[in-house]
Give the backbone structure.
Amino acid sequence: MSQSMLSQLSEQAKYLVDQSMAHMDQLYDKDAGMLRDVEESQRHNTRGSGHYAVGLLLRNEPGDLERACILIGKVLDMQFDDPDEIYHGTFRAAPEAALPWKGTLPWKELGAGIGYTADEKVLSPVWKTYDPNWREFIACTFAVILEQFEELLPAELVGRMDASMEKAIVGSIERRLSGAIPMNSNIELMHIFVTHYFGHRLRNKNWLVHASQEAIAFHSAFMEYGSLAEFNTTTYYGVDITVLGLWRKYAKSDEMKRIGSELEKGLWESIALFYNPYLQNLSGPFARAYEMEMLGHSSMGVFLYLVLGKGYEYLAAINCESEHDPIIALVGVNVPEYVKPLLETFQENRLAVAKFRELCERDLPEEQGHICTAKAWIEKDLMLGAMSGSKNTNGQMHPATIHWCTQNGQKYYLRLLKRDSGGHWNTHSRGITFEANVRENELDVQVSLQTQQATDIYFEISGGPLDVNDVTAEKWSLPGLSLQVDSNAQAPVIQQVGSMIEVVYAHQPDRSDSQMSFKLSVVGR
């Protein structure tokens, strides 16, 4: 069955499977029976091990089935089974990962956000000792395995998988209903799918009702502005598109397939509005981002390769998300025909504008869904992005961005970030908000600093070769782009940090004004 399935895949899908399997074969640790973590070779990766099992079952060469069964067994061994705990049914991220401890609070009754706000002495801290999202990721992987390859697996292993999914879905629903740890868009989509899929498989009517209600609510929220809370987010868009592919291929009801189809179509329309085929990137601003380069931490390039075909293999190059590729190869991609040209060829200069309702996951429910406006001025070799309306505390939110390239094709990036002085940008901090706006060749930002924490507001410039001597307080003479900078902030510290340049505006609560403003004007190309 598996060999014929592999032969039925498109040429592009086969390429993805072959490439990702060659990558994962090298990461497999025979002694541990798990995949090594791609970024930390001394650790193993529970989620990645599940993805590798999918690829092995799809490839089904001699020894692959036996190895897949070992991997699935190891993943099952990583599951937490403690019905009273907030982490019930999720999976240890790695056998080397820290273990959670038993809490002393009735967490299901304490309201939204308790997973973030409770004292670590009474509730095991999320992200530090457990990852609640591994429930949904691994449940999606198991759904694919059981749907496509169940007949290859020993009955005893299938029984263990079903019993595991009973725990995972119970824990996922309890998380959703309690709001203890809010779900971002990609996790919410996975939650709906796995609750629906295993509701059918395990004949649980309550799960099916829950999944239907959640799907209708998600669709209604999406249709408000045709956007997701994780807006313009390449890392999570890759997950979203994958999961909507699962809805399309494996959903068991016409309702779920219809809703999934409308979400998939709408998401591609939103992507096309902010995507630049020449720069091969989504413009900012980003509700959440790790990197400015789309190909660095995302499966988006993989989907674009599936859409655009031969000659675009470089978009699907190996990165930290490549373990997803066997599942992506199975579900494929479904882009509306009228959207495809917008992904292939730059059409025209434009001002792209969209609204979205964000998720401030560390706030109360009534304070989570602020309406934000994303704007981007998009030219062939230049994109400026700006966000207004956000109250998000997350450092992954990028409210002001610039992408450009030089005449020789070298790409560069600029993003506005915040951090506690001496800290890292990828943290949560309160009392700092940004109001940004963009027009042709101009980016304006107002920063409000209602915080007693010493804070850095800074522009990070990256890409190709950079010379810190080309950047002054008033003018940034960068390769392929010159910017005039007007600001009411105190003089910045301009520093070289590795291959990047940081322009840092320090805020000291007892000595600095609570407002900063910046105007970045393009004065040379």
Notes: The first strand starts at residue 28 and ends at 29. The mean pLDDT is 95. Residues 348-524 form one domain.
